[in-house]
Model the fold of this input.
Amino acid sequence: MMKRLASIKLTFWNLIGLGLLLGSGAVLTTVKSHSKTMRAISEQLPLDWFSFFPRDDGLVFTWFLLTCLTGGLLFINILCCMGLRLGVLVVNPRNLRQWLFLLIHTLFAVVMACHGLSMAVGFKHSNIQLKPGQSFSFAPEDEIIVSEIVFKDNTDMLKADYQTRRTLMTRNHFHPDQNYARITFTRKDQPMGSGTLTMLSPFTQGDLQITLTDFLYDKDRPSDPLGVSLVVTKNPVVKVFFISYVLLIFALILFAFFTWKPNHDETRFILPIKY
Amino acid sequence: MNFDPFTVLYFCMIGSCLVAWVAALMQMRRPSLWFGCFFTALSLITLALIIFDTHRLPIFGHFEIITQIIFLVGLSGLQGQRIFQQLHPGLISPVMTGSWMLSLLLLILLYFFPKTVNPDFYMYGHASVQVFFNFRICAGSFFLIGALNICVSPLKNAPIHALYTARNFLLIGAICFLISECAGSFWCLNWYGDSWHWSKGFLKASCVFMGLMLAFHVPGNWKWPKALHMFMGCLPGLGILWLLFMH
Done:
């Protein structure tokens, strides 16, 4: 059974299946009747979306389920493949190629696992629109309060629509470090931390991240027009995800370095080792 | 027609690339090499001008992408010829001929698009954004060079290790692609609070990554026609074209 689950044939067909599913997902995001549902997956924790989704878009629901199942099968396939390779290395521990191969697959499995876990662990609250003095409660005893919003550049760019705004927000006209929001994070009404949010520079405390996604301008309230759009996330595996991702890249560089010259087996196709 | 420096450079590049390719087809080694060197140098000058003009690395858009790809493809053609010449003095490497042809096709495609840089956006000042876009172009270039080596491998005068060279280029492309995706995830984390988005861009990139992994996971004991094996090796190159040009 393990040999079957570790087989490269399963990997091959699994990759084809997953590739087709991801490709069709990309198409679904462009179909008007499904794009809103696809966007909704990103606005919260995918597990929450999956658990509480009203099921009115059966196609996206089925697509998501199939993608997760195929990804899960690929993960099992990698784990079993690693198990078999470990067995080979016990017999012949001096094979550097095999060690590097095992390392690459192990790190890839860790990246995949983190990816899967980040869909199910923690929380995500999107599109939180706040003005100075307003607060948002994301857990029974936890909340964030926006104490101040400063926007020193020309606010005309905030009044424009999305496309115009993009052309106006050049490096000369928009300075991320001069436009910010100050927030305070409280637990049981006691301040736990405070910080400054700028674009692309979120506030983090432990696994909690508060991200500034946009500045808002309320034309109907000229005396107090500025607001911010925030995302509050808790992702306990994000650090492991990035560390293993970087290590995976280094492992691949090492693998390329040590296997650059063809060995006696070079007549084979592009597979670097014999199965 | 507006003859700004980029347009002039474009016409010089396409002209010299055409001459280099025709010379290679006619087995005129020296003219092909010289004109090949010339258009590769022109693409480098264009890249330098793009960086000087925008204060950032090339990111996206047909002009910036194609200029960087033909620079890397041109270099690989010249390098391929250098190695080939050691074993076959006086002959032209099919890798070099293929590189000129690929560059020419991309330059013909560029004819239909503006020869201008992308408008500025404040996010382009961030390293993660530049790395994300630029390493994707690097990955695309290496995938295409890999595909080129695979395509010339069945030819009689193909370099001995063409398939292994293809494998090496696909591997470098994979490293560049992962660096790009990692930087992209970091950008997404800082912009949207999450390292992944269920959006068209992320799904397309993941689809291309599956194509890349397919190239490295063809079961060795399958008696498939060679053309099918070759197609698998070309998948990342085809996928990245979809990703880069059908934005």
